[in-house]
Amino acid sequence: MSVLDPQAAVASAAPERRRRPITGSLLVGGVIVALVIGMALLSFVWTPHDPTLVDASVRLQKPSPEYWFGTDKFGRDVFSQILVGSRTTLFVGFVAVGVAAVVGVPLGIVAGMAPRWFGELLMRGNDLLLAFPALLLAIMFAAVYGAGTLVAMIAIGIASIPTFARLIRGGTLQVMQTEYVTAARAAGRGPFAIGLRHVLPNVSSLVIVQASVGFAIAVLAEAALSFLGFGTPPPTPSWGRMLQESQELLASAPRLAVFPGVAIAVAVLGFNLLGDGLRDRFDPKLEDRR
């Protein structure tokens, strides 16, 4: 294989990645994530009842064949709300991670390829965002622009940019020290071509892993914001707001908190396990240390 052929060097490493066995974390996490996605897709075409329909005549019904998870204090079907709430959760996660990746990945690549002083300057500016956690930033945005799903998505995405940028910068610095990048420079390729054709494909696994972990953070942050009243507004179902509405009935109807709480915990667990499994699969150093 020629040193001047960086794409062949990348392709030659692909079979080794594919040969690695699927870990338990990747399998379990993938199944849980697929289940959550399946629930969200199902909610578009079918729910047992209208999740926003208020019917005082059936309020606080216990689980039954008609109401699988019972009804809440407004007479709404809890199972239908869980289904539609998964759609809201995934939507927030996709947009928040998308915002973080679209801004953080190019920023990290530029910081890794630029002169050291400029890269450090970008990272110091990037570190300023670390002083604003997702919840704090979302509360600030809600105070200025009003509570809403879009505000929560943007705030969570912005708060996740520093993590993406720092991770991708570290990967870019490693790629820039390889022989095929040196050969590409010697062949006269510019920074944009090197970044697009050589750096980005080699840090894509880092992006995938971080996106999975970032998704779990976004799910938890959206639930917390909805619980505090700064997230998805009613009547749109949200797991976090279901928890908030159930807290006054914890003694008489604890199931109203159990079902959304378990849904949040399982979804976060699934994305975390998926991220761990992807990291094990893409990073050969972890396998060597075991």
Summarize the SSE layout with pairings.
Blueprint: H1 6-19, H2 24-45, H3 78-113, H4 116-129, H5 134-145, H6 149-175, H7 179-186, H8 191-228, H9 239-246, H10 255-282, H11 284-289
Helix pairs in contact: 2-3, 2-10, 3-4, 3-6, 3-8, 3-10, 4-6, 5-6, 5-8, 6-8, 7-8, 8-9, 8-10, 9-10
Q: What would you say this structure looks like, in words?
A:
The chain is mainly alpha-helical. It contains eleven helices and no strands. Helix 2 packs across helix 3 (78-113) and helix 3 (78-113) packs antiparallel against helix 8 (191-228). The radius of gyration is 23 Å and the shape is elongated.
List keywords for this structure.
290 residues, mainly alpha, 11 helices, disordered N terminus, disordered C terminus
Q: What class, by secondary structure content?
A: mainly alpha
Gyration radius (Cα, Å) is: 23 Å
Helix content range of the residues, please?
A: over 70%
Low-confidence stretches: 1-18, 286-290
Strand content: under 5%
Separation, N- and C-terminal Cα atoms: 30 Å
What is the typical, i.e. mean, pLDDT? 85
Number of DSSP E strands = 0
Q: Give the number of helices.
A: 11
Assign an overall shape.
elongated
Please outline the major beta sheet: none
Q: Secondary-structure element sequence?
A: HHHHHHHHHHH
Summarize the structure.
It is built from 11 helices and no strands. The chain is mostly helical and 290 residues long.
